[in-house]
Amino acid sequence: MASNVYFWNLRTNLNQPFHKRMAKLLELAGLRGIVQENDLTALKLHFGERGTTGFLRPLWLKPVIDAVLAIGGKPFLTDASTLYVGQRGEAVSHAMQAARHGFDAMTLGAPVIIADGLKGGYQEEVAVKGKHLKSAFIAGAITEANSFISVNHFKGHELAGYGGALKNIGMGCASKQGKMQQHMTTGPTVHQDKCVGCGSCVRICAAKALSLDEGARVVLNEELCVGCGGCFLACKNGGLEINWKTDVAHFLEKMMEYAAAVLVPKAGRCLHLNFVMDVVPDCDCVGFTDLPICPDLGILASSDPVACDQAAMDLVNAAPPLYAGKLPKGYEPGQNKFRALHPHVPEDFGLGYAESLGLGSREYELKKI
Question: Of 128, 205, 230, 330, which shows the fewest CB atoms inside 10 Å?
Fold first, then answer.
């Protein structure tokens, strides 16, 4: 059965400026039936790593926050900490990075709350019915929220091929342990040549999987490693890093199972917004923002994340390509731009598996406002 996906093409006028168009989009998408009075409502987004400029503009979120407040909900802006070393590895630096990019509670009407706690360990283990995982480790503030809105910068992604609702949910709502569980099946990659013998990783490893050898260099016992990811935050010298080399199809399926762990317990209480604007080749994690691959197209809203992502991808692929940037020359409207950029990704980008998990339908009806 086709799902409804509501679409606004960004046209405005004096009588219908941005905030009124957004309010209409949210109304048609059923926000009032998703958010209830006194709901603690998580708005899951990506605040952008330092150096990026394509992240969602804070004022674009203001109509979404205002709509939740008008219902009587209590919105908060949220994300979980990263595995890699950057500006978002723990809550203090992450919140400061959000502030640097303009996500201010007094301006927007919603605070920033880092969902997995101070050091990425605030999580809940959630049962999953998938072919890879029996449970998933989800950031605690996400599981505790009464209602959930994914606010997604639709773009390319260097591993998943594209980033939209399901990537923002499946990877973005996982704790450090959850992110590591998706990315790999063994422990971290050890670079003894970069280890300075400080022992920070050994002290933080609750599983006792890390130790220092006679030369004061880190050693990993993979059999003891539980994949919590705490050592990445502890090591400041690159001695322990995630092994990004993974089977992409396998990774995407685990990511979709994580999305199910977030969404299934909140059935009927979730909405998804894809901002198909600044559609750049890579994630907002990379520390820079390249030129877009197509013009700005619009904003999509749906209670179905699979349909919302499929519709966004179809719009991007149908749009005229912009050749000044990373997209190879010679591509025509209708060809898959994300496959051109990231050919290592399966043709369906994991959406077929998401559909099989009951997360939604790849068939949709685009309803323009």
Answer: 330
